[in-house]
């Protein structure tokens, strides 16, 4: 992370209402280059709604999303992908009966060159398998031995790994993950957390939605706390405790009551000190 960083992705004053229910009440978010931003909040705080606005799954009633400072209209998941934003949804969008390579390239299949590709639209399975292997190796996913294996035969953690690999392979700007470890055991969670760290190491910033405080505190650079449809604070997990984070999340403690060093609104604590 560098000190003068501009957000890669930001949201400003997002509002989303469903009839009389307000899911987002003027939500803001900033994601800086090279960071893992955790998003935490109680049930119904608007985390998923916020992420859906960023992944093109829903359109906010008002407010703005920007990529590198430029306003974008994410009117569909495809529009978000085109903007470089890849999302791993909690309900994994993998096709169980298809193999790993095909899942990785779903909707973005590689076609063969020449007439076979342009006329008969033949798929280049060999190249997709080789590229799939490369993407898996890139992220150190060594437990998957054969990209021809069907996804339904993989373990939960391996399936999650395929979904993360796909997002990391195609996300040019941002990878968003909604509760990636919620359904996983200890060992599989470990593997997915390592994977998230490797995505960051590749230079891609990550938004991680999670209820699991130990996971959040292990990997996050900053912690966005969502409460009653808006961001109530952004915390510095190097200074805050998990108890502080939970207290802010539930409203037991006001962010104003925390020391300034516990807050992390800007890119890094170091950057804030440099600025001010
Ligand atoms: N399609 C919808 N129709 C009606 N209300 C909705 C809809 N989607 C979300 N809401 C409401 O908006 C609020 C925020 O929901 P959201 O799913 O964003 O919360 P969340 O923070 O992701 O919660 P959780 O931790 O339980 O996943 C909730 O009160 C929810 O009931
Ligand atoms: Mg949710």
Would you write up a description of this structure?
The chain has 276 residues and is an alpha/beta fold. It is 33% helix and 22% strand. It contains 10 helices and 10 strands. It has helices at 47-54, 77-82, 100-104, 114-118, 125-138, 156-170, 186-201, 213-219, 242-250, 269-275; strands at 9-18, 21-31, 36-40, 62-67, 70-72, 85-88, 174-178, 206-209, 222-227, 230-235. The strands form 2 sheets. The chain has a 6-stranded mixed sheet with strand order 6-7-8-3-9-10, sandwiched between helices. The chain has a 4-stranded antiparallel sheet with strand order 2-1-4-5, covered by helices on one side. It is globular, with a radius of gyration of 19 Å. It starts with 8 loop residues before the first strand and ends with a helix. The structure holds adenosine-5'-triphosphate and magnesium ion. Magnesium ion (MG) binds at residues 47-48. This is ATP-binding cassette domain-containing protein. Residues 9-253 form the ABC transporter domain.
């Amino acid at each position: 992370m560098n000190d003068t960083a501009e957000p890669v992705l930001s949201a400003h004053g997002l509002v989303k209402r469903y009839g009389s229910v307000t899911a987002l009440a003027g939500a803001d978010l900033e994601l800086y280059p090279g960071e893992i931003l955790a998003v935490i909040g109680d049930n119904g705080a608007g985390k998923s709604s916020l992420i859906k606005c960023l992944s093109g799954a829903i359109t906010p009633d008002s407010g703005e999303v920007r990529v590198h400072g430029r306003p974008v209209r994410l009117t569909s998941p495809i529009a978000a992908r085109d903007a470089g934003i890849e999302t791993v949804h909690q309900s994994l969008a993998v096709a169980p009966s298809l193999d790993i390579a095909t899942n990785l390239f779903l909707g973005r299949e590689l076609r063969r060159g020449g007439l076979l590709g342009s006329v008969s639209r033949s798929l280049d399975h060999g190249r997709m398998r080789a590229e799939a292997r490369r993407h898996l190796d890139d992220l150190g996913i060594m437990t998957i031995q054969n990209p021809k294996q069907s996804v339904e035969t993989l373990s939960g953690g391996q399936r999650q790994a395929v979904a993360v690999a796909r997002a990391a392979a195609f996300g040019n700007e941002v990878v968003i993950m909604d509760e990636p470890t919620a359904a996983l055991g200890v060992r599989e969670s470990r593997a997915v957390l390592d994977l998230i760290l490797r995505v960051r190491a590749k230079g891609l910033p990550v938004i991680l939605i999670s209820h699991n405080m130990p996971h959040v505190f292990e990997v996050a650079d900053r912690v966005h706390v969502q409460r009653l449809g808006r961001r109530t604070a952004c915390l510095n997990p190097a200074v805050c405790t998990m108890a502080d984070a939970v207290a802010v999340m539930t409203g037991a403690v006001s962010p104003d009551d925390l020391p300034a060093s516990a807050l992390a609104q800007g890119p890094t604590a170091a950057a804030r000190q440099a600025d001010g």
